[in-house]
TrEMBL record, chains A, B:
<dbReference type="InterPro" id="IPR028366">
    <property type="entry name" value="PhoU"/>
</dbReference>
<dbReference type="GO" id="GO:0006817">
    <property type="term" value="P:phosphate ion transport"/>
</dbReference>
<comment type="function">
    <text>Plays a role in the regulation of phosphate uptake.</text>
</comment>
<keyword id="KW-0592">Phosphate transport</keyword>
<dbReference type="Pfam" id="PF01895">
    <property type="entry name" value="PhoU"/>
</dbReference>
<protein>
    <recommendedName>
        <fullName>Phosphate-specific transport system accessory protein PhoU</fullName>
    </recommendedName>
</protein>
<keyword id="KW-0813">Transport</keyword>
<comment type="subunit">
    <text>Homodimer.</text>
</comment>
<dbReference type="InterPro" id="IPR026022">
    <property type="entry name" value="PhoU_dom"/>
</dbReference>
<dbReference type="InterPro" id="IPR038078">
    <property type="entry name" value="PhoU-like_sf"/>
</dbReference>
<dbReference type="GO" id="GO:0030643">
    <property type="term" value="P:intracellular phosphate ion homeostasis"/>
</dbReference>
<dbReference type="GO" id="GO:0045936">
    <property type="term" value="P:negative regulation of phosphate metabolic process"/>
</dbReference>
<keyword id="KW-0963">Cytoplasm</keyword>
<comment type="similarity">
    <text>Belongs to the PhoU family.</text>
</comment>
<feature type="domain" description="PhoU">
    <location>
        <begin position="23"/>
        <end position="111"/>
    </location>
</feature>
<feature type="domain" description="PhoU">
    <location>
        <begin position="130"/>
        <end position="213"/>
    </location>
</feature>
<dbReference type="GO" id="GO:0005737">
    <property type="term" value="C:cytoplasm"/>
</dbReference>
């Protein structure tokens, strides 16, 4: 009996490890996608932008694989309480990472509309890479926190989201001013507004994952902690 | 034995009915939120906009309730194959509806930034309600298709997403032209660009739900059908 139970536990732990490995893999691809999309944007490299859009299918494929694995894990192991919660959390985190990948893909999609033929280089682009770095660092660090099940690291990531929001507000104002002063480029700069918004949303999603990591590690909601302390 | 099995089946059916009722309730609230957000936008009614933002918490609360119910259903009933897939689909559909609510909330959030004091009425607002109607009809109809498990109705909703995308492209161009001609209102109209984008995303999400409804009803992926047919 004891051996049978041990076997089941071990199998479940292996399933969880596999789930976590798939999530890390998705996260790495999403981080790379942000990096490549911004590189394509800065350089006007439409070939690289196309590559980012194509590679997004890999992220979607891993999410689909992960979902199948989860259905199998639940059906075969019938996990209880905490274990089940961990499995459901994996499903939710994967969905959030898939969305981060979508935002990167959306940035890549805008590259040809921003670098239109015959147009001068849009100076306003130069303010975006620093914001992108902030957002992609949040994604990187939340994946580390997830791997290490590190609640404190997760909490620190949530704090950084405010800085990213301020950055976004400032860029919004800068781009609006730029549009007013350069009416010829309004269409391209409007696309840059969406790029900035996508980066801000990437930060929101990294924060969502951080909150899930915090909850999984401590059983407490981070929002409650910060509201009271 | 037979009675015991019947009991379990009945209890599971009741759980599923409850899950579906919660999803319909969320959907109704999301549809109302789109409607109210657009009314607030058209009239510059910041009090109504605030109401929409407050009410979004109800949608979030139902999603949280639904998640708890799902964990309980899986733990207690240990559903197999098809049943488990239906439960997981409910979790995913609820997450999408929660996002639709978020987009409506985001539109409401922009109302005070679009109707700034001392500014003239931004004429460009008048082109958005028709697009909003299209998007909110898609949400309404996909919820009907979900309730009726109607695969054909779900397929028709996906077709309408192209019309909404074209509408968005046309509005994007109109708003850009408006900005060029009215540099004084660039900031407000930039917020309108995001409103239009939110409506376009609502349509994307209604389409996602329609695809899930189609798959649940037929066991086939809609994308495969339309690709070959």
């Amino acid at each position: 009996m004891a051996t049978g139970h041990e076997h089941t536990v071990k199998a479940f732990d292996q399933d969880i490890s596999q789930l976590r490995a798939l999530i890390s893999q998705m996260g790495g691809l999403a981080e790379q996608a942000i990096h490549d999309a911004m590189k394509a944007l800065s350089r006007g490299d439409t070939a690289l932008a196309k590559e980012v859009r194509k590679k997004d299918k890999q992220i979607d494929a891993i999410e689909a694989e992960l979902e199948k694995l989860i259905v199998r894990v639940i059906a075969l192991r019938a996990p209880m309480a905490d274990d089940l919660r961990e499995v459901i959390a994996a499903l939710k985190i994967a969905a959030v990472i898939e969305r981060i990948g979508d935002y990167a893909k959306n940035i890549a999609k805008r590259v040809p509309m921003i670098h239109t033929e015959g147009e001068d280089r849009i100076e306003a682009i130069s303010i975006l890479p620093a914001m992108a770095q902030l957002a992609s660092d949040m994604v990187h660090d939340v994946l580390d926190a997830f791997s290490a099940r590190d609640a404190e690291a997760a909490a620190r990531i949530c704090e950084r989201d405010n800085a990213l929001d301020d950055f976004y507000d400032s860029i919004f104002r800068t781009l609006v001013t730029f549009m007013v002063e350069n009416p010829r480029t309004v269409s391209q700069v409007a696309h840059l507004l969406f790029v900035a918004k996508n980066l801000e949303r990437i930060g929101d999603h990294a924060t969502n994952v951080a909150e899930m990591v915090y909850f999984a590690a401590t059983g407490r909601y981070l929002a409650d902690e910060t509201a009271t302390g």
